[in-house]
Amino acid sequence: MAQLAVSPTRDVSANVREVTDEEIAFFRENGWAKLDGLITPEFAAELLGVLQGVMGTVELEEQDGSGPARDPKAGKVLDTGWWRDYHFIARDDKIEPFYSFVFSKQMGRNAQKVAGRDVPIRYSNDLAAVKMPGPVGTANDATFAHQDMPSLPYDRVGAHIFWIALDEVTPERGMMRFYSRSHRLGPLGRIDPPEPSVVDQYRELIEAECELSPPLTLKPGDATIHHNLTIHDAPPNTTDKPRWAYIVAYVPSDIRYTGAYNYNFENLGLERGGYLEHERFPIFYP
Q: How many domains does the chain fold into?
């Protein structure tokens, strides 16, 4: 497997800590974990300032949710009806310090610990996930309960998501909730609104096997990780401030492409059953 070139321009090692063995053990048991102070508050504030400068004032027409819409003022931004997303601020637009953070040795090492296998780490996705304030509606509605894996063209588990608070995120501002141990249930199917959520479709099973996480509040720099089979959702943002979060997803390098539909993988010439050998998905660690 080829290791495609990435060229971070900044050393962020002083701003990112290593995930602990205790956090990994909690993650293995529950399918998610809270990571207090994964990045420093100062670094979170810097990321937030850059992100707000790029997209904080952009107004978009309503989109249908089928894929990212290119806005000339702010890269890839998408109003899906659940949040306002800016896709690939690191990968495509290489905006610093997002680019150096996502492709840092520190995050690569953390991703390998979470994956739990001695294989190189491949980048999968990054996006700002911003729920806007105000009455429940277009860009601040509840996020329906779902698993990530059924919507991804991957042939195995091992993908995982770091969800990082760039500002304080409270339950009222749309903080995620997790169904502990739901990663042990296997894939429960792709769910697209207005279909019933995965919890509604498997309620008896989930109530018997899982437990909803307690309400979480994240300070700037705190994060969560979750398994790509962990069921999660989020309430609407009913406050008067946006919810500023940044998501980074990594996968083991030996994951293979199934050909299932996902906008991030379309028209790339990937071979079904082959590795993700494309510049969009570089192996960057070690």
A: 1
